[in-house]
Amino acid sequence: MKKIVILGAGTAGTMVANHLNKVMDRSQWNITIVDQDPIHYYQAGYVFVPFGLANEKRLVKPKSKYIPDSVKMVQASIELIDAPNNQVQLANNSVLDYDYLIICTGTDIYPEETPGLAEHEWGKSIHSFYTLQTSVDLRRAIRDFQGGRIVVNVVENPIKCPVAPMEFLMLADAYFTKQGIRDRVELIYATPLSGAFTKPIASKRIGDLLEKKNIIVEPDFYIERADPDAKKIISYDEREINYDLLVSIPLNKGADVIGKSGLGDDLNYSPVNPHTFLSDKFQNIFVLGDASNAPTSKAGSVAHYAVDLFSENFKHYTEGKNLTETFDGHANCFIESGYGKGVLLDFNYEQEPLPGRFPIPVIGPFSLLQESFLNHWGKLSFEWMYWNILMRGFKIPLSPTLSMAGKWTE
């Protein structure tokens, strides 16, 4: 029997386990998935928690519920990937041999990498919403906030869900308006980008939306350190921004074991072919989801489209056929904009987000780069689709590659 080992049972790992379980000849292939955490988290729901819009209990489910019975699940932390010898060493002293390795170890926050951030004010005047626990802690801070300056700061890109910081700010605008104290709350977005988003058309449109909501964008802000006692953040060019409440999106990095195993770049992301996800270093290692250095958004929609294309491609590869460069970086992002509305982005490696209708031209029902109530409901309905369709390896009847149908060029 040949062996496939999948490292990580998050979004990408769970989907690829389900897809490969269906397409591979299970009389010829054993599939094992490894993860130290028994809990699966719906991370797209974290941004709602600080404003009391989501109960954290609904965002967690057992990972074992979504792994096929025929796939062996091992709960253990990964000590080392010994790629030259096709082995994975686990912290429980066991060793897994593999013929093919699929790395889906994701990305996480490292606030300790920024001086002053993860010190005595962490969880007090400095918070984050990029883990479930920090989202819950931030909820208490938001509830008790009676006025002052809230600064949302992205330490460095890439980050998980690049639109989440803007979602937080617009939800904060709506929350404090409802509380009747919006005039006493100053909202600032300090970002290393030159605008609200990475691409010019979306950056202009979203920037205009933030401006209408009286949210100030501080561009090209590369934080060098935080001063938790003086309650300010300082950039490398010595600009200072004072805050009463700092909401940090800390440095995002891949899993430490990736760097330790010599498979990562400076941020522990594995270099891959961005269209096939084949490792640049080893011909029997693939890297999916947030763990790779592919220049696309680190978001669930990207993992979904990538895995849809990956499974058949991988099967053909194991049969001695050439890989087809099928994935184009396709991503969708729903952005909550408050007051029961949302904005939708649809783009890929080459094509920036454009206005239009999605997924059906003219009809939609979702509008691109425009606020709408339907976009908000699209965001909310995705949670059900995530648990019941994507995590079980079913396909959504949407093209995994970008379609220009329904988009309006500018």
Describe this structure as you would to a colleague:
Helices cover 23% and strands 26% of the residues. By secondary structure, the protein is α/β, with parallel strands linked by helices. The strands form eight sheets. The chain has a five-stranded parallel sheet, covered by helices on one side. The protein has a five-stranded parallel sheet with strand order 11-18-12-13-14. Helix 1 links the parallel strand 1 and strand 2.
* Strand arrangement across the biggest beta sheet: 5-2-1-9-20
Q: What kind of sheet is the major sheet?
A: 5 strands, parallel
Count of spatially separate domains: 3
CATH architecture of the largest domain: 3-Layer(bba) Sandwich
Mean pLDDT: 96
Architecture blueprint of SSEs:
Blueprint: E1 2-7, H1 11-23, E2 29-34, E3 39-41, E4 60-62, E5 72-74, E6 78-82, E7 87-90, E8 95-97, E9 100-103, E10 107-109, E11 126-127, H2 132-144, E12 148-154, H3 164-178, E13 185-190, H4 200-212, E14 215-218, E15 223-227, E16 232-235, E17 240-242, E18 245-249, E19 252-254, H5 256-260, E20 285-287, H6 300-318, E21 331-338, E22 341-347, E23 356-360, E24 364-368, H7 373-388
Parallel strand pairs: 1-2, 1-9, 2-5, 9-20, 11-18, 12-13, 12-18, 13-14
Antiparallel strand pairs: 3-4, 6-7, 7-8, 10-19, 15-16, 16-17, 21-22, 23-24
Helix pairs in contact: 1-6
What are the salient characteristics of this protein?
five-stranded parallel sheet; FAD/NAD(P)-binding domain; alpha/beta; 410 residues; 24 strands
Q: What's a concise summary of this model?
A:
With about 400 residues, the protein is of the alpha/beta class.
